[in-house]
Specification:
Layout (H helix, E strand, L loop, with lengths): L3 E7 L5 H12 L4 E3 L8 E8 L6 H6 L2 E9 L1 E3 L8 E4 L4 E4 H10 L2 E5 L8 E2 L2 E2 H6 L9 E10 L5 E4 L2 E9 L5 H12 L3 E11 L2 E2 L6 H9 L19 E3 L5 H5 L4 E2 L10 E5 L2 E8 L6 E7 L5
Parallel strand pairs: 3-14, 16-18
Antiparallel strand pairs: 1-3, 2-3, 4-13, 4-14, 5-6, 7-12, 8-11, 9-10, 11-13, 14-15, 17-20, 18-19, 19-20
Helix pairs in contact: 1-6
Protein name: tRNA pseudouridine synthase B
GO biological process, one term: tRNA pseudouridine synthesis
EC number: 5.4.99.25
């Protein structure tokens, strides 16, 4: 059985669940999980966890993401992207200087508050928001803070003019960020209705576009018996955390998942990784209730 992380390039028109369904057939295992949904209309990096790596799915879901989007100024839609029906339209001729636009992007960099769009999978009172939206209901939903690490303008125009203005941006952000909603917020700052015209996820955590394969490419690789070339080891998802070798003194304690005196690195990092022969054995965190101690959060039994 394969264990590891497959950096998949999800193509437009597929749901994340569609990808998992197809991959289970190609990889001939049920133990396959994705790391956070990408809307059907969005293409991009979707790390897939296989075998023991499914234990890391939450880490990959929580990792920062990088997107490239085209923002359209002039119309807003029900879904905040190009798929929805037009809600409002400003057909006036607009003139926006590069300086104005850069200032707006700067204003929306850092910690910002977002209200999830009605067409989203966020649950309120046990139901997903899009279920209310499909019935024509608009309900109150809680705002949440997200982090925009960088918001970069990708063209070199000096002035943007026209009844509809579009421009490309690159966004590095925390989990839970809605780029559709960010597009609307950019429009609000400029004083116009807006929506997200297109979106591509170019990175998820440590995994980038150039690491990825499509489902059709993977099928060919599997038929050639070369899956090891594209399925990355579990350790690839843990490179952001300090790593320490298991030694003779602590081998039994760590492989048995015992509570231990806290490692000094946990003062600065929320997790540390213990490895043996280059393979992850355990991930330790500060003990939540016992000062000065640490406990395993994830264990990785030896596999063939």
């Amino acid at each position: 059985m394969q264990h590891g992380i497959l950096p998949l390039w999800k193509e437009r028109g597929m749901t994340s669940h569609d990808c998992v369904f197809k991959l289970r057939k190609i990889l001939q295992t049920k133990k396959v999980g994705h790391t956070g949904t990408l809307d059907p209309g969005v293409e991009g990096v979707l790390p897939i966890c296989i075998g023991n790596a499914t234990r890391l799915a939450e880490y990959l879901t929580d990792a920062g993401k990088t997107y490239e989007a085209v923002i359209s100024i002039g119309t807003s839609t029900t879904t905040e992207d190009a798929e929805g029906e037009i809600v409002s339209e400003d057909s006036s001729v607009k003139t926006i200087s590069r300086e104005q636009l850069l200032q707006v992007l700067a204003n929306l960099t850092g910690e910002i508050s977002q209200t999830p769009p009605m067409y989203s999978a966020v649950k309120v009172n046990g139901r997903k928001l899009y279920e209310y939206a499909r019935q024509g209901q608009i309900i109150e939903r809680p705002s949440r803070n997200v982090m925009i690490y960088s918001l970069e303008l990708l063209d070199d125009e000096l002035v943007y003019e026209g009844t509809t203005i579009t421009f490309p941006v690159r966004i590095a952000c925390s989990k839970g960020t809605y780029i559709r909603t960010l597009a609307v917020q950019i429009g609000e700052e400029l004083g116009y209705p807006a929506h997200m015209a297109s979106l591509v996820r170019i990175a998820s955590g440590n995994f980038k576009k150039e690491d990825c394969v499509t489902i059709s490419e993977l099928r060919e690789i599997a038929e050639a018996g070369e899956l090891d070339k594209v399925i990355m080891p579990i350790e690839q998802a843990l490179t952001n955390y300090p790593t320490f070798q298991v030694n003779e003194e602590n081998h039994k304690q760590i492989t048995n998942g015992q509570v231990l005196p806290m490692h000094a690195s946990l003062e600065e990092h929320d997790k540390i990784v213990f490895v043996e022969s280059g393979k992850a054995v355990a991930i330790y965190i500060k003990h939540p209730t016992k000062d000065g101690l640490m406990k395993p959060e994830k264990m990785f039994p030896a596999v063939d």
